[in-house]
Amino acid sequence: MKLKIFVAAVLSIANTVVNAQSLYQWKTASSGGYTYKYVTNDPTRSRFYTLSNGLTVILSQNNKEPNIVYKMAVRTGSNTDPRTNTGLAHYLEHLLFKGTDKFGTLDYAKEKPLLDKIENLYERYNKTKDGPTRKKIYQEIDSVSGVASNYAIANEYDKMMKAVGSQSTNAHTTSEETVYEENLPSNAVEKFLAVQSERFRMPVFRIFHTELEAVYEEKNRGLDDDGTKMYEGMLNALFPTHNYGQQTTIGTVAHLKNPSLVEIRKYYNRYYVPNNMALIMSGDINYDALIKVIDRNFAYMVSKPFAPYEPAQEKALTKIQKIDINGPSAESLYIAYRGFPQNSHQSLLLDLIGSILSNGKAGMLDINLNKQQKVLKANAGYNQMKDYGMFILSASPKAGQSLEDAQKLLTGQIELLKKGSFDEGLIKATVANIRLGELQAYDSNDVRADATMTAFILNRGKEWDKMLSSTDAMARITKKEIVDFANRFFINNYVIVLKHKAEDKSIEKMEKPVITAVKTNANEVSNFAKDIISSAVKPIAPKFLDYKKDLAQGKVGIADLMYVQNTDNSIFRMGYRFEIGSYHSKLLPYAAQYLSFLSSDEYTAEDISKAFYNIACSYSVNVGTEETMVYISGLQENFNRAVSLLEHLLSTCKPNEGALEDFKARLLKTRDNAKLNKNSILSGLMSYAQYGKENPFNYGLSNDEIKNLKSAELIDILHKLGDFKHTIIYYGPKPMADLTAQITKLHRLPGSFSDIPSIKKFNYEPTNANKVYFADYDMVQAEIRWIRNAGLYNPAQKAKISLFNDYFGGGMGSIVFQTIRESKALAYSTFAMYSSPKSRDKQNSVVAYVGTQADKMNEAIAAMNELLSSLPESQKAFSLSKNNALSELEAERISKEGIIYTYLADKKLGYDYDSRIDVYSALKPLGFDDLKHFHEQNISGKNYNYCVVGSEKTIKTTDLEKLGTLVKLDLSTIFGY
């Protein structure tokens, strides 16, 4: 085996550089009475329509499954917020879920005078500076809001989306876009678009002050997030004039405290106009039929002139700016350069340079810093926005390394780039990997819709041809052009953001206002919603898997083979699934990580990474608790080369003592950093509550055992991994017989498999009494999780659990969300669920969560406990949840290697057939009384463990002790080191 074979075997697709101008050309066509534009050779087959009122419609047909991704994109965001009302675009995004004069209301004629009064009260509130007077006005706002809520139907939009069968309701706001998203079954297009059309006709800003409090919570979460603080500090320095840096999406604390419904309405009328919006749908559609339905529903919209954000050009940055950020999380840093406008050649160069520096395999940072373990981790990449981009390098220092030392290592790689100290073949390999990524990605409706949405935001879709041809343009870039550009661009004009582990004394917390719970009227339905819900659709027949037909099984020597053929393209994905994991061997996960730093008897570790990247193939070794997966993927034409190299590495990797010492230091530093992460701490608390002191979270080597790791024992594990029983999983174009012959030659198998070591078993702790597990962390908010063990898995309950979770604690229309966020404004994020295990010998668990301001913790806990004790009844909500659960199963299509992994998951639960068959049939007869009984038997009246992460400065011990026996855990106990 010669390395030059691998280096030379770059994909043919990278060698074929065609004239992009002739390959991707705009064309105009007509069909079904509508004219549209399209780009030749577009892999998404997108059609760009412009309706008579200026609304852009972008449709992409992909009929592989009966689902459609929908996005309504508005070219507006925090950039266009008024200077006096930052955060307004984000407010508005939240309010677009509240309904109109037709839905979300019981009687709009009676509701409107109250909403007008609330609007006027807010205007008075904003103009009043005197504290006691403001408090009095707010009390009146709270009082009138309570009366107005008598006529409101909270989250009726979400109810209609459940009736439609949407599986993903969401929205987001950034600096220059606000996007509303759904994922619906294709049989419900007519009634879905009727809702979307009505949603934007005349939105009513009801239930405002509780939603405002949810935004306060979102702001406080940002104040607790060191990454957010770093990013905002970086933007502020890079863009001293442009609103990218001068206005955050969430807004300032001062502006959040003084919202104006008048300004929000003005903003909506100004920017939510059809000539500034795009409706995007990708999936199981008929172009001609769908465009007619869209036109009919949105024809009421009237085009209006508006003034887009036209920023003054930023002056050139002429010096290095240093930003210091303090916070409780681990140290890290950014180095950021201001980039160029979208679709500019300079941005294309920076995008390519980002991959040359960092691609996860063979980039300069990957090879020179990460592979050599000179830092804990390093990355680089280019982030493109409309007017400018940002080139960002990031690093986390290793043990004993200062932020300044890590900074020098990053800038050192930039200097090597400027000197041309990189292989020119890296350009060609990068293009090949990008092409492979595109080939895989455009099979996804989400990716298709997101790509065309991005085009609309960046350039109104007018440069979609240029975006499609960017990879071809990248292929024509030479090393000399990169080096020349790098020397002009990477000069001492960057922003360095240093994140220190220190107390942040600058945090301005959003204080809790006094809010009286509003009515949600969950059992009520508007006439508009009644029509939508009752509107009949042509049913979609569920398509369940037949494991005897949909996958093939065979043998490769003594190993089992599971096979699904790829008939769409030339991509393969293969895995070796070993029946051994970290519960069988504590050393196995460390051996797997060590592998990436090892050479073989022929190649260096760096050469191996480059070889895989050069043929656009990937491999990974992922160790789970009970199994290990060795993955490899790429184009089938490179299958032999990729598998041969992986097999060679696993069988001949050799010790590297220097790398091992660095690896051990890296592991210890990663462990130290984990103790600074509130999410990791919360996970550890939950595991402790479920299993006691010896639990899955802290199961592993001690720090002393890590320090004493020996190369010989890790290498031995890697060399012998193939001796353990494993199954070969393959999805790709190769016929099964040919594949079997091919793998037989490439994959080393023993005469017989070695015995699997005994597995570590953990004992579930009985939840015999309420307990509170508390960990101190410097933060504004409090994170609370409820957890209790709930008995062994019972397949007869699977349908009931699915329906219960949807009704009780999942999604915006759930009882938990409606009560804790919508009615009582006690949290931005909250959920509750009955969680099932992945195998029959494991226990179910009840999990609930509230993330809230520390001063609202007691109220939030009481609200969740009330729901855990007593299940509110809403027959209408129940019917919608049931419809949604059935609709999801009817429209779901499992394909590709997903067929194999679904089979394996079912097998662990004791099924030899698609378990969804049982769920679907069991769902149909279920009534609310079944859920009520389930709640009484499994949720209500039970003891719970409360896992709380928060600051001892703001959370009273006496409050925690009221909940149950208080156990304060230190980090060493939680993490086990």
Task: Give a concise summary.
This protein is of the alpha+beta class and 977 residues long. 43% of the residues lie in helices and 18% in strands.
How are the strands of the biggest sheet laid out side by side?
3-4-8-5-7-6
Question: Sheet with the most strands?
Answer: 6 strands, mixed
- Percent of residues in helical segments? 40-55%
What class do helices, strands and sheet pairing give? alpha+beta
User: So what's the overall shape?
Assistant: globular
Distance between the termini: 44 Å
| Number of extended strands | 25
Mean pLDDT: 94
The proportion of residues in beta strands is 15-25%
Structural overview:
This protein is of the alpha+beta class and 977 residues long. The chain has 40 helices and 25 strands. Strands 3-4-8-5-7-6 form a six-stranded mixed sheet, sandwiched between helices. Strands 14-15-19-16-18-17 form a six-stranded mixed sheet. Helix 7 runs parallel beside helix 35, helix 8 runs parallel beside helix 14 and helix 17 packs across helix 22. The longest helix has 20 residues. It is globular and about 80 Å long.
Summarize the topology:
Elements: H1 3-8, H2 12-15, H3 20-23, E1 26-31, E2 34-39, E3 46-50, E4 56-61, E5 67-74, H4 88-95, H5 108-127, H6 131-148, H7 156-164, E6 170-173, E7 178-185, H8 189-199, H9 208-223, H10 226-238, H11 243-246, H12 253-256, H13 261-271, E8 277-283, H14 287-298, E9 321-327, E10 332-338, H15 345-357, H16 364-370, E11 377-384, E12 389-396, H17 403-419, H18 425-441, H19 445-459, H20 464-468, H21 470-475, H22 479-489, E13 495-501, H23 527-534, E14 552-556, E15 559-565, E16 571-578, H24 588-595, H25 605-614, E17 618-623, E18 628-635, H26 639-652, H27 657-674, H28 678-691, H29 703-707, H30 711-720, E19 726-732, H31 736-746, E20 771-776, E21 781-792, H32 798-808, H33 815-823, E22 829-835, E23 843-853, H34 857-869, H35 875-891, H36 898-908, H37 916-923, H38 928-938, E24 945-950, H39 957-961, E25 965-968, H40 971-975
Parallel strand pairs: 4-8, 9-13, 15-19, 20-24, 20-25
Antiparallel strand pairs: 1-2, 3-4, 5-7, 5-8, 6-7, 10-12, 10-13, 11-12, 14-15, 16-18, 16-19, 17-18, 21-23, 21-24, 22-23
Helix pairs in contact: 4-13, 5-6, 7-8, 7-35, 8-14, 16-17, 17-22, 24-30, 32-35, 32-37, 32-38, 33-34
